[in-house]
Amino acid sequence: MFSTYATNALIGSSSAMYQLLQEASAKRPVDGNQHGSYLTLKSNKALIIGVIILCSGSGTVFLDQAYWQRAIASSPATAVRAYILGGLAWFAIPFGFATTLGLTAVALADHVNFTTYPALMSQSQVTAGLSALFAATAFLGKGGAVALLIVLFMTVTSCASAELIAVSSILTFDIFKVYIKPAASPEQLILVSHIMICGWGIIMAVFACIWNSIGIDLGWLFLFMGLLIGGAVFPAAFAITWKGQTRKGRRKRAPFQGRSLGSQQALSLGL
Fold it and tell me: Can you give the pTM of this predicted structure?
């Protein structure tokens, strides 16, 4: 961000960025934006994306076992403060990427340093998330590409690690110990958890390869995620906060059936 708005010769200031974006709006106006501008808050598509992000983000937090494990393992006072501070700190990531790499990809699309010059980015390249990579390469060269690769590597490994542990915990303690072998020893549970981590890692890798081979990009996956998990948010929340809920009811299939039915209805309406 400092390089984009302070030191880089290709842009170097907010006024230069503004001028480049004004020129881009005149050449390539955005359908649905006020006067086709990239610098307006009146954007129909941005409003739709905002609603989708709100729904999918709520679903991710409510239904992700990784969040539940951290919240349950921590004291309430610590967990509340930690999640509030973490949520506020998270906003710097999308805002920072959007106002630097996102706008830079638009502003420098006609520059000779841009990766796709003289052609513009294709729709498939944009939905694959390559605009940030092209922007970083344009004004920082190979160093920018390496820096972005490090950021992506750390992000993916952090998320994958949390999900591996979360899924392993469910399969080991909520399924294996409850339904398969209730008398399992701690050593057996540790062994099963390690097996589950390896197995789930292989499953994630297989699905990633399948989606990549059939052409599913990040844009489609993001929209589909909102449809798939958004409908399960309220059933999951009610199963935990409803004062009439009993221990017997929680152990039976009602919460699972409610979440499954909510996801099925959301998916059918989306399709």
Answer: 0.74
